[in-house]
Design a protein that fits this description.
- By secondary structure, the chain is mainly α.
- It has two domains: 19-153, no CATH class; 159-330, Intergrase catalytic core (hpI Integrase, Chain A).
- Helices cover 56% and strands 4% of the residues.
- It has 15 helices and three strands.
- It has a three-stranded antiparallel beta sheet with strand order 1-2-3.
Length: 335
Amino acid sequence: MCAKKAGWLIITWKYRKEVVSIGGTLRSQLINAIKRQSTFGRDKHSDKKMGKAGRHNTAGRVYSYTSSRNREATAKDFAQYMKENYPNIKNAYQLTSEHCQEWLNSKAISGKCSTDTLKTYRQNLNDLEKNINSTYSKACVNLHETKTPSGYNTSKVRCQAMSQVHQEAVKATYQPYSTGYNAITIAQASGCRCAEIAKMQNRDITINKDGTQAIVHAIGKGGRERDIIITNQQDVQNLQDIKAHVSAETSRFCPCKSESLQVNIQRHIEKAGLKDKYSKSTFHAIRKNFAQRQYNQCRTAGMTKQESLDFTSNQIGHGCDRDATTMTAYVANQW
């Protein structure tokens, strides 16, 4: 057994050395490092627990397709900058924090990036450091010693919950029971993410016999599943109505990819004259409205402030131990 283990280590070492010697463009090296650390479908939270116990190395792992696409987009843009400004840097293990800081500064100077976007870029670079060091044996790069430069401020747009009136205004631009109409109806009632709604089938929504409660089964990030309990009578009725217009139990309410659904909803936001108010954050804005309504309902029912926050956090797929800062972003009015 020891011999096999030793042999495995030697083979792994040779493979990683070979990857470095093969090279390729800087861009291809960065993309390869990300792809080799992709573990789609695994539960991030379980891995973190194993990591704390010393049984698992989760450094730089990519758990969702969205995270992978975002990190790859950052890597490609960064690689292009390096090609234009540092053509002598050919290998990933030659990158430094100074290169990263200069790239971030150039994005800020361009005037096209918000501070929030620049923070995301910086986080992607931090994760890219882990991907590079985990993939290439020759690499020991440090890309995290950077500071986020100031971009333009979009906090007023990004953090605003979409009012019920505005949600209905957007729905009014759709044909009843069309893809976008169904998506907004489900988001209103359950606070689900766009990706969760795009995968949702008719059988994932159940209504009890007397029509007073609905349960929405959602599959979220990392394959985590949850049941969202809906008791608001108007929401229950709306869900019952869209179910009646979907034939098979395995038919989807929104038969398209989540990216297409986002684009579609955004077009109808413009039709409703609300583009400036909810730019590129439609589902997140609806989720925030749902979270506030859930919290208010819990408090009205006599639950404590913390009980209400925990219940709301579970409903939107964050678990009951979510930090106070995150929940404040979703529930602005904590009375």
